[in-house]
Amino acid sequence: MNAGRRNVQAVNETDGERGAATIIVAGMMLVLLGFAALAVDVGAMYAEKAQLQNGADAAALAIATDCANGNCGSSSATANQFANSNANDDSSGAAVTFPAATTVRVVTNARDADTGDNSFSLFFARALGIEAADVGAVAEASWGAPSAADVIPLTFSRCEADPTFFKGLQFFPTHGTSLADDPKYACKHKASSGHELPGGFGWLQHPGSACNVRVDVTNPWIEARPGSSFDGSCSSTFTRWEAALKAGKSVDILVPIFDTACPDKGGKGVNPCAASPFGKSFRIEAFAQISLRGWHLTGGGTTYLTSEAAALKSSLKLKNSDTGLYGEFIKKVSLEDAAVMGGPDTYGAMTIQLTE
Questions:
Q1: Cα dist. 277→185, 220, 224, 256 in Å?
Q2: DSSP assignment string, 137-180
């Protein structure tokens, strides 16, 4: 009898252990399903989000382009077309609004290709009672004519922003210095009017205390700053640049490029300065992106040279009177590309850009 009771007790204990193990395994399966839902379903949602964002961006730019050309057309149809074409299942929702006169906003959302529901169907998460999720994206685009650009108040000659003139690190002498006016200095060429363009850079007159000047796209004449002394409003700007260079950071600046310097030095053809509203002035043609490496500016200015700039100064045998900037030309930037939007559409030039 005792042996039989022991056998029954052992069987009952084994069954209890099996039941407990089943509960543990079931619980672990739920946990694994939860992790699978995170890994698979969340990953799929991110992929869907990327498709919806591409569709929203493309739709906003397309509608803005139509509007910039004078006819917004059927903006809803355009939005749905680009939203669907950027979805792997060719099924998305899109809504269009115009929050401002020159701004379009496109909101896209996931849509089930089988049921037409505006939601994203999940797979593993269904085991946890979650059938679908809302996934969407937003994009805004604006259009308008370029008006003006705020840049540092100094300007280079056009040929010094010509990559065929110099390659690599170079010295940009101050306009009017002995080096810039030296016949051996190659940065001189004829403008389309036949008049000579001097080399070097010059300071620009500007209102206010900030170290910047505004260039109007429709009337890019800027008055030259009297004399050749350093512009005191730029002291803090150069101090900030010096700190960045000492920290090993790059300093890229946008510098106006002039194609006419007035008064001109004479030449054949129409006087290019006739259109200038100022006596001494520069006509800004475009901008140069310069990677700054140092400078030597007198008349209240400062001097800072990186090791590269110091080596260049030594190789060029520059004197203390040779003032200017050291840097490397990166690329030329048009007035329209550098300008902000919102100006008059005088020449039919329009810019379109994503704002969200």
A1: 30, 11, 11, 18
A2: EEEEEEEEEEEEEEE-SEEEEGGGG-TTT--SEEEEEBTTSTTT
Q: How far is it, in rounded angstroms, from Cα 18 to Cα 22?
A: 6
- pLDDT per residue over 333-353, tens digit each? 777 666 655 544 433 444 556
The reply to whether the predicted model has a pTM over 0.85 is no
Other Cβ atoms less than 10 A from the Cβ of 214: the count is 16
| 181 and 220 inside one domain | yes
Answer whether residue 354 is part of any domain: no
Contacts of 11 (CB under 8 A, 6+ apart): none
- Give residue 51's domain range: 2-134
Judgement on whether residues 156 and 295 belong to the same structural domain of the protein: yes
Distance CA 33, CA 26 (A): 11
Q: Is 65 left (phi over 0), alpha (psi -120 to 50) or beta?
A: alpha
| Residues 184 and 288 both lie in one domain | yes
Omega into 153 within 30° of 0, i.e. cis? no
Total number of domains in the chain: 2
Query: Cα–chain-centroid distance for residue 342?
Result: 18
In the block, which residue shows the tokens 């006739």?
Answer: 274
- Assess contact for 39 and 71: CB atoms under 8 A: no
Select the highest-mean-pLDDT range: 25-29, 86-90, 143-147.
Answer: 86-90
Q: Where does a domain end: 87, 109, 134? A: 134
pLDDT in tens, 237-264: 899 999 999 999 888 888 888 888 888 6
Which residues touch 105 (CB under 8 Å, ≥6 apart)?
Answer: 60, 96, 97, 98, 99, 138, 139, 140, 356
Which helix or strand (DSSP H or E) is residue 246 part of? Answer: helix 235-246
| Pair (164, 308) in one structural domain | yes
